[in-house]
Amino acid sequence: METVRASVMYAGPGKDVLTLFVEPTPSLWVADPIDDGIAVFRVLDEHGEETGEIAGVEIIDFLTFDRWEDLPDLPMKWQLDGLEPLPLRELLRKIQQTVRREKVAAG
Amino acid sequence: MPLKKGDWVRGTGDESYAEYMLRARRRFEQGQVGTVRQVRQIYRRAAETVREDIRQATPGTLRYGHLKALAKVLEQRARSLTSELLEATQAGIHLASREAVSGPEELVVRLVEGTFDRAEVRRLFAAVNERAVLAFLARTGPDGLKLSDRVWRVGERYRNAIVRVLEDGIARGEDARKLAVEVQRYLQPGVWTVHKLETRRRLGVSADVSYEAMRLVRTEMNNAFHEATILANRASPSYLGIYWRLSGEHPFPDVCDDYARHNGDGFWPRGQEPVRPHPQCFCYILPRHERPEEFAERLRQWLRDPQSQPHIENWYNSTARVFLKRPYPTFLAGSGSRLLNVQMFAEPPKERIERLVAAGKIPQEAINRAEALWHSRLREGVFLPNGERLQITLLDLYHAIVDPMIWRRPERIESLLLGIFEIREGEHGRRVALSRWKEDEQERVGYAILGEEGGLRTLHVVDEKRIRREMRRGQVLWRR
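YS: structure for the whole thing
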C-alpha cells in the first residue's frame, strides 16, 4: 500500500472542520462530497479532468464524527510528521482522540 | 587499574549515569574474579578425581599396561573438564555482556523518559544483550578458533599433560599411590613447585596447567564486555564514541598506546571503535555521550519534526522502531487559553495559506484580493436567498480559499452564496445549500454546508454531476 506524506488543517473546536491533505498538495483539485459531513478532494489535471489521485479529505463536525464506515476505502497510508503511516480511518481516529483530549483539558 | 569516577563523568556528561556505569564495571570485575575462582575449583575437583583414578589403577607400581586403561578414563575426565570449563566461560560471557549493556540501558531509560515506554526500552536492550552474546559465542577469533574450540584445546592440553607426567612416573618405576599424589599436586591450581623447570621442559608441560584456562576465561570475559559495551552504546541515540584508556598492566608500549593517543585524547567516534588488539589486553573504554540537556532539546525537536533531527530519526528507524512505538507529538498548551493551538500536527487555515504562499503555491496577490473582498463584501455577512443572513468570519474566508477553485476567484464565495437555489437537511443539524450561478457566460455550481445555528462550515465549487447527486439526498428545507 502506498504511503503519502500528509498534513492536517484544523481551526479548532469552534469551526470543527478537519482537513487532511496529501503533501505536497497538487495545485488543482475538486471537492467530491460523500455526504454533508465528508468530502474527498480529487486531483485534476490541467484540462480539469480527474487523474484518479486524492488530494485530501474533509470531515465536518470532527469532534463528534463517528461514521468511520462511511469514509472511503482509499488504498493508501497517510503519514503525518512524527507519526507512523496509517490508513485513513486509523489516523483520523487517533487525531480525534487527541483533539478531544485537548478540548477537555481546555475546559 | 582502579577506574576513576571523574573519567566517567567527563565521558558521559552526567554524574549519576557515570556512577551507574562505574558500578556496572565493578560488578563485571567481581563477576570475573568469581568466574576465575570457579575455574580453579573445576581444576581442583578434576585433580582429586584423577588422583583416585590413578590410585585405583593398581596397588603397586604403575606400568605401561595400566596407562592404556587409564587413557580412556583420562579422556573422559578431560571431556568433563572441557564441558565444565566451557559452561563457566559462557556464564562469564553472559555476565560480562549483561553488565556492559546495563549502563547504556539505564542511560537511555532516563534520557527518553516520557517519550518512550520504559518496558519497551528495556526490551530493546535485552535484544541487544542477546545479540551481543550470540555474536560473541559464534564468532571466530584472530586465531581462527571459536570459543568452544579454544576451550577444547585447553582440555586437550590438560589430558596430554597428565599422560606425559604419568609416562615419566612409569619410566621411573613409581608406585601408583605416590604417582597419584604427584599428579594431583601438579594439577592443583596455583601449585608451581611439583616439577623442576628442566623436568617440565623435558616433558613439554606447563608449570600450572590451570593457568591457561584462567587466562582464557579472563580474556574472553574482557572481550565480551568490550564488544557488548560498544554494541549497547551504539544502540543509544546520544552516543558519540569511546575513549581508549590504558590498563595499569601495561609494561611495554604497544598498539594500545597508539589507541590511547588517537585523536590526541584517545577518542574514537561512533562506528570506528577498535577491537581489542591482542589477547590479555586489559585496556578499557569509556563511552562518550551527548550532554543530557542537549540531547533532551534535540529529542523535543525530533518530536515536533522528525526530519529536523535526522540522526535521531535514523536511530529510531534503524535500531528502535521494532521495540519502541513512535510517540505522538505533544501539544503545546497556551497558558490560560481555552482554545488550544494544536500546532504539533495541525495548522489553522491561515497558517496553511501562509505556508503555501511561502512555497509559491498560491500567489500573495490572490490572498490580498480575497482579504480585500472579505473586507468590502463579506465582513458584514451575506443575505442568502432564503432571507437568512450568514456571517462569514475571516477564519471562514481562509478556510474557503484553501480550495484552489476559490482562491483563484475569491468572488465565487459571494456568488455561490447568492446563487443558492435549494437547502436540504443534513446530519446533526447541518444544512446542505446547493448553488448555481453564472460566471463569464458559463454556469458554475457549488455547495455550502451551513451550521444549525447559522455559520459557514465549508463551501466548494463542484461540477454538475456532483450537484445532481446532492439533490437526491436529504429532505428539502427550502427551495427557490
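YS: worth flagging: Chain B touches chain A through 52 residues (CB under 8 Å).
IM: good catch. Also Confidence is low (pLDDT under 50) at residues 330-341 of chain B.
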